[in-house]
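User: Predict the structure for this protein chain, please.
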Amino acid sequence: MIALVRYTFTVMLLSQRYLAPLLLFIGLVAVLTSSDTGPLTATYSSVAGAMLLCSVWLTMALTGLEDQPHRSIVVVSAGSHLRVLLATAGTAAVWCLLLTAAGLALPLLFGARTPGLADLALGTAAQLTSAVTGMAIGLLCSRLVFRRQGYALVAVLLLLLAVLLGKGVSPVNIMLTHLQNAPDSAEALVTTSVLLAVAAGFLAAALAITHAITRRRT
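Assistant: Here is the predicted structure, written as C-alpha cells:
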C-alpha cells in the first residue's frame, strides 16, 4: 500500500495537477485571513472552508490521473481495485495534511497572533473535517463514477452547496456555524472532533460506493 501511495504521489507531482488547488488554497487563505483580527476560531473556520474546496479538487485530480488502460495495468499490478482506490484516498490525505500545515501557519504569518495549543488543535481538526468531507465528495464525483465530466461538475456544485449551506446536513456546515459562534478554541475542539469522526464515516461510505460502482463497470 505504501508503494502504491508513493507511486500515486509521484505521478501527481509529475503531472503538476496539484498546482491549481494548491494555489487556490493559498490564495483563499491569504484573502480570508490577512485582514482578520478576530478570534482564531473564526479564522480557522475560514481556512476550513478553503480546505473543503481544494480537497474536492485534489481528489478528483488524483482519480483522473490515468486513463482506463493505464489504471487497469495499475489494478492488475496492485492485485485489486480496492487497493488502488485506497491508495488514491491515502495520497489525497497526504496532500490534505500538507495543506493543513500551511493552513495553520499562514494565518499566523499574515496577522500578529500568538496561538495556544488548543487553537492549533482546533485548526487541525477543523481542516481535517473539511478535507475528509471534500475527499468523499471528490470520490463520488470522480471519473470512476461519472464518465461525463459535465455531469460530474453539476454533481460537485450541488454537493458543495448542500454541504456548505444545508443547515445541519453535513458536519462541515455544523462545524462552520459552531466555530463562528464559539467563545474559545478549547470549547469548540470537542464538538469539532466529534464532527471529524462523522466526516470519516462519510468518507468510508463514499469509498464503498465508489468501489462498488468501479467493480460493476469492470
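Residues 2-217 form one domain.
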